[in-house]
Amino acid sequence: MNSLLPWFSASSFPLYLAPMAGVSDKIFRQLCKERGADVLVTEFVSAEGVFRRNERTRYYLDFDECERPIGVQLFGGNAEHMAEAARHVVDWVRPDFIDLNFGCPVNKVVAKNGGSALLKDCPTLAAVAEAVVRAVAPRPVTAKIRIGWDTDSINAPRVARILEETGVLALAVHGRTRAQGYSGEADWNVIGEVVAAVSIPVVGNGDLTTGPIVAKRRAETGVAGAMIGRAAMSSPWIFAEIKQYLATGDTLASPDLAERWDLIQRHCQLAVEEWGCEDQAIRSMRARLMAYSKGFPNSKMLREKFQHVSTLAEIEAIAAAHALPLAQLA
Q1: Which residues are CB-neighbours of 34 under 8 A, at least 6 positions away?
Q2: CATH topology classification for 15-248
Q3: CA gap 86, 131 in Å, rounded
Q4: DSSP string, 12-60
Q5: Residue 104: active-site member
Q6: Quick one: which H or E segment has residue 170?
Q7: Which pLDDT score is estimated for 324?
Q8: Burial, 113: exposed, middle or buried (Cβ in 10 Å; 0-12, 13-18, 19+)?
Q9: What is the largest CA-CA distance in the chain?
Q10: Which of 131, 232, 290, 296 has the most CB atoms in a 10 Å sphere around its CB?
């Protein structure tokens, strides 16, 4: 494996936290790191925003040293601007790697010829990747792709070979097409075809929710690592659970209710400190709280309450009312 990406080795199987807009901010990344995530990636960042020195864009680049190894993910369809943006990012924050987003299915990204739109335009995809690799060398460049634009144009193995030829050193592959969005099932057969098509590490992504599932996909496809996205939103401890299973074959017990509520309250407290405004911070946490409620007793009631919270005191009151042991709630 390439020494520029030392977390890949014959004896390691890194677990990535997937970059998720509005989710994988600095606070959540660090919570996942504490619970076993090996490699982190920022929320995707607009290359045009970096190129134009947009101050809001600079916010998305912020990370702490404890998060390393961490990559900054860029999206865009202009090779020159992507290269210049990547140079700025390296100068500003010195990430461990630059990651190229060729997988985002969101309309506002695709409409600007970014994300998964470039799966339909391999010459531009190659030009972008090659320009960024040259611009930041010797800092490593990785990429994330989907298996294709739709079921009639599944081309991930070809795209992977193109990216490898440009000097991209590792790939993450989401096993859905752009047309699927986040619906349906991830196609791990295609991910396996990508592994067979290239010599660089391939990280698999899609429907990875337990240790046994990760172990099964690893054995079937030979992926060099796993990327966890939506499952981490409700269970940041999933990384520790997967590691335990891969190492021993044993299932690690999930945190009890008290531990979960401690995590939720800590996340909210850190958000308030980061924002500097309690009302805005807690309002921004509402969607995150909805995700955390998955699997909780009385989760419907919890979600109704979370829709209206705006203070830490309200979170504490809800926790006090709902943090009873499961046996007492039965």
Answers
A1: none
A2: TIM Barrel (3.20.20)
A3: 10
A4: ---EEEPP-TTTS-HHHHHHHHHTT--BEEPSPEEHHHHHTT-HHHHHH
A5: yes
A6: strand 170-177
A7: 56
A8: middle
A9: 61
A10: 232
List the catalytic residue out of 104, 122, 268, 277. Answer: 104
Whole-angstrom distance, CA of residue 129 vs CA of residue 135: 10
As a whole number of angstroms, the distance between CA 230 and CA 182 comes to: 10
Q: How far apart are alpha carbons 225 and 170 in whole angstroms?
A: 10
How are beta strands 97-102 and 15-17 bridged, if at all?
unpaired
SS3 72: strand
**CB distance 136 to 88 below 8 Å:** no
pLDDT at 245 over 90: yes
CB 117 within 8 A of CB 110: yes
Cα–Cα dist 149/156, whole Å: 9
Residue 219 burial by CB count (10 A; 0-12/13-18/19+): exposed, middle or buried?
Answer: exposed
98-137: per-residue pLDDT in tens? Answer: 999 998 888 888 877 889 899 999 999 999 999 999 999 9
Average pLDDT over the chain, rounded to an integer:
93
Gap between the Cα atoms of 328 and 306, Å rounded: 22
> Reduced to 3 states, what is the DSSP secondary structure of residue 207?
coil
> What is the phi/psi pair of residue 32, to 5°?
-70, -35
What is the spatial distance between Cα 189 and Cα 172, in angstroms, rounded to a whole number?
A: 15
DSSP 8-state secondary structure symbol assigned to residue 122 = H
Closest C-alpha among 175, 187, 145 to residue 163: 145
